Amino acid sequence: MKGFDFDFLKVSPTDIVDIILVALLIYYVYTLIRNTLAVNLLVGMFIITVFYWIVKALHMELLTAIIEKFMSVGIIALIVIFHPEIRRFLLLIGKNAFLQKNKAWWGYLFGRKEIERNNLTRIKPIIDACKSMKKTRTGALMVFVKFYDEQFFANSCELVDAKISKRLLESIFQKNSPLHDGAVVISENKIKSASCILPLTDNDQLPSQFGLRHRAGIGVSETTDAVAVIISEETGEISYAKQGRVRMNVSFGELEKLLNKDF
Hints:
EC number: 2.7.7.85
Keywords: ATP-binding, Cell membrane, Membrane, Nucleotide-binding, Nucleotidyltransferase, Transferase, Transmembrane, Transmembrane helix
Catalytic activity: 2 ATP = 3',3'-c-di-AMP + 2 diphosphate
Shape: globular
Largest sheet: 7 strands, mixed
Radius of gyration: 23 Å
Pfam families: CdaA_N, DAC
Distance between the termini: 62 Å
Number of strands: 7
Order of helices and strands: HHHHHHHEHEHEEHEEEH
GO molecular function: diadenylate cyclase activity
Oligomer: single chain
């Protein structure tokens, strides 16, 4: 009786390095598309692929031909669809962020509580500013982005690049401030820019009380991986927009948890 050949189970040092590099690549791609619309696009592509296998197995020639034509431009479609993610991935490499971001990765494994404490310290000035602006019914729009895209924001914003503080945020959104009419963009633990003009959402199902500030916050969350905190000038109500969806009447406790998770 012939024995089983287990040669295929032999793993060389090169194979181990190969597996580790692929795992790291998958991890970084995941961090780029996590909590973005790209995840939904990937799911849609997966469903189309599975559907293609099914219709091909059932010998449905017409449907198979149509899907094959669609998939024949797959590489070009991927580049167009995932252009923002590819851009961020290249920026990540160019800034040598693989090494820098690993600090957060190691912290996740060995110091999660310390990271959460540091995050809450960074978030506190934002929460305090929101409390003050809610009380005075000062309209505000704060956008939080993981990667600050200078090309996207530079053309319509005033560069600030300052440390986050309660007084600075309140000053920017004061009605008499020349920078109050627009959004503040926060990234890398800094107020990067102010008075930003953002794309408005095309969603026509939003409540009628939503003005330009809410529509801009929802719009930027649809087209980028940003989240937006909106304070209504009429009611002082705080809203939180992410991936084109908006959560209304957010409490300060909820806002702290959301920012701690997404910021």
